[in-house]
């Protein structure tokens, strides 16, 4: 059984672990995120690693299940002796990891989980991406010039999404917008279809969806039967290619999604070009917003380790307590003791007949 000999403090290796969904129906998000992270670390190791230390990147499948996530994280901490722990996908698994006894006993910081619906304030978690509220505010600002006042909300039933629904409702009221109707997506497909029809009859100017990729796709398939040209908006934790495959090309027209990275298929900035080049060299899959996010997360962690004035393992603790700017190549992140979000970048992607446009 591997032991503490894997620790970066004792060897020429830095061990980075991650428990993330690789096998559920929504696992495309996790697989893309891991592909981007692995691509960066593969390129980093090929160029000598971090100060001569190679990165060992260990990934466990948490199956989008809190109990499995806790078991996987326990294994990463106790057996693999990870120096850093990257987060998985989803509010429930993230909260479960933060509450896990083995994590609480460790001195680790959970870095860069993909949490979409809730804000978690904890001194043991550091997000790379902006928060849910910031994404929603960007979406609403995108529609503000159109003068649309009537908005519908669709949310997948669950504790985190109910909290997100309350936050969104408060934001709408603060902007003087009118909530025409809501849909709570459950397991009853017939009822979901009826709710989609009812929402369409209220004639909202646009609809905001708080749901995973599959839930959003199934809603779109039904909603488009009654409202083929009503804008539908969602946040960044939607795998857009999977969405189009499940919902169909016609259903995803007139949809917009906030994005926390720039266009992954463009090479306008140094980080975009580096990501495209390394994905082509090390992976046999196309780039996506999630591969780019994984790539920049890995690069951010690497730069944090290089900047740390204490031990390797203290890099994220240092980042959380200092006001620091990290330049990534046309994209920068800022750490502050006042916030546990490094990036404030938000963009909008629009589906049109000829594909996705940023």
UniProtKB/TrEMBL annotation:
InterPro entries: Leu-bd, Peripla_BP_I. It comes from the Bacteria. Residues 14-349 form the Leucine-binding protein domain. Pfam families: Peripla_BP_6. Keywords: Signal. The keyword Transmembrane does not apply. Belongs to the leucine-binding protein family. This is ABC transporter substrate-binding protein. It comes from Herminiimonas aquatilis.
